[in-house]
Design a protein that fits this description.
seven-stranded mixed sheet, about 170 residues, single chain, 6 helices, alpha/beta
């Protein structure tokens, strides 16, 4: 398929653990891809939790749907996540995994404002990657700097896997 950006195993184990720490919760994934991280999140979730995942790549999400679509806790949305975020801005989530440009480099505030108090916001690919396009490193640095300046969260930057940032909303 040419899909070269699946989440790493370490990222998956962290996502599974974080999902397990949120019983009876609502989770959001921005950037379904082929569903690898989606599977990790579902594996950590309890039976009363739900996961909404959004991606605009129908070919990739068809793989996710084929393997995970029978899980009643899953809502898979195939559309531009920026459009989805704007349309669902009144929704709230206990955990958000922003694994795409929307929610990370685009419309961050829309995604952040959906996060509940004490909610967990996770991003990966914060360490240099071979597949980054020209100019992407500057986007990452700008994002990290802006996150550091926030006074409504506590942040852990982890220099393992692809580079994980975990932010917990405090107000």
């Amino acid at each position: 398929m040419g899909f070269d950006t699946p989440s790493e195993r370490q990222t998956g184990t962290l996502l599974r653990t974080l999902a397990a720490s949120c019983p009876n919760s609502k989770l959001l994934e921005l950037g379904t891809g082929t569903g690898l991280a989606t599977a990790w999140l579902l594996d950590g979730m309890d039976k009363s939790s739900s996961l909404t995942t959004v991606d605009n790549d129908k070919l990739a999400t068809d793989v996710a749907w084929r393997h995970l679509g029978n899980d009643e806790r899953l809502e898979l949305c195939v559309e531009d996540a920026n459009v989805w975020l704007a349309r669902n801005s009144n929704s709230s989530f206990d955990l958000i995994f922003a694994d795409a440009m929307p929610g990370k480099y685009e419309n961050f505030e829309l995604a952040w404002n959906m996060l509940t108090l004490g909610g967990k916001y996770v991003v990966d690919d914060m360490l240099p990657q071979n597949n980054w396009p020209e100019g992407h490193a500057a986007k990452v640095q700008k994002f990290l700097t802006e996150l550091d300046l926030r006074n409504d969260c506590r942040i852990a930057k982890m220099c393992w896997s692809s580079g994980i940032v975990l932010a917990v909303r405090t107000n």
